[in-house]
Amino acid sequence: MAALTKDRSTPARDGTYREFPVKAGVKIFAGAQMVHTGGFAKPGVTGVGLTAIGRADHFVDNTNGADGDVAVRVQRGKAFRYDNLATDLVPRSAIGGTCYIVDDNTVAATHGVNTRSAAGTVVDVDDDGVWVQV
């Protein structure tokens, strides 16, 4: 590979929706905050080393399957509203900053002493929750 020396027609794809193979032994509900580890999608959980990938577009049950037996369609590139953890509230002053995954429907203001992975960027906080850009 080398730097361009002439014009190139660079391939592109819409990154709004993407299919991810699902981790073994998990059930995913539509609307769930999603993460991946080792290339397999699963619902958001408290943990380190997880990468937020978006919001599940539909229900998937892989509780009796192996890694990758089924796939889930994940939407990203938008802000999704999740619950705000009462004991670690994301304040309005956090808009533009990072919030952290607690579970598949909840985010927190802090990484919980290095126990939580980043959920995405806070774009708004209202009475109903935290709007997170993923």
Number of helices: 0
Strand content: 35-45%
Q: Spans of 5+ residues with little confidence (pLDDT < 50)? A: none
Trace the largest sheet across and list its strands: 1-7-5-3-4
Helix content: under 10%
**SS-based structural class?**
mainly beta
Write structural notes for this entry.
The protein is mainly beta. The chain is built from no helices and twelve strands. The strands form three sheets. A five-stranded antiparallel beta sheet has the order 1-7-5-3-4, with no helix packed on it. A five-stranded mixed beta barrel has the order 8-10-9-11-12. Strand 3 and strand 4 form a beta hairpin. The protein is globular.
Annotation keywords:
134 residues; mainly beta; 2 domains; five-stranded antiparallel sheet
How do the strands and helices of this protein lay out in sequence?
Blueprint: E1 17-21, E2 26-28, E3 33-37, E4 40-43, E5 51-56, E6 60-62, E7 71-75, E8 79-84, E9 98-103, E10 106-108, E11 118-126, E12 129-133
Parallel strand pairs: 8-10
Antiparallel strand pairs: 1-7, 2-6, 3-4, 3-5, 5-7, 8-12, 9-10, 9-11, 11-12
Quick summary of this structure?
Helices cover 0% and strands 45% of the residues. It has no helices and 12 strands. Strands 1-7-5-3-4 form a 5-stranded antiparallel beta sheet, with no helix packed on it. A 5-stranded mixed barrel has the order 8-10-9-11-12. The protein has a two-stranded antiparallel ribbon with strand order 2-6.
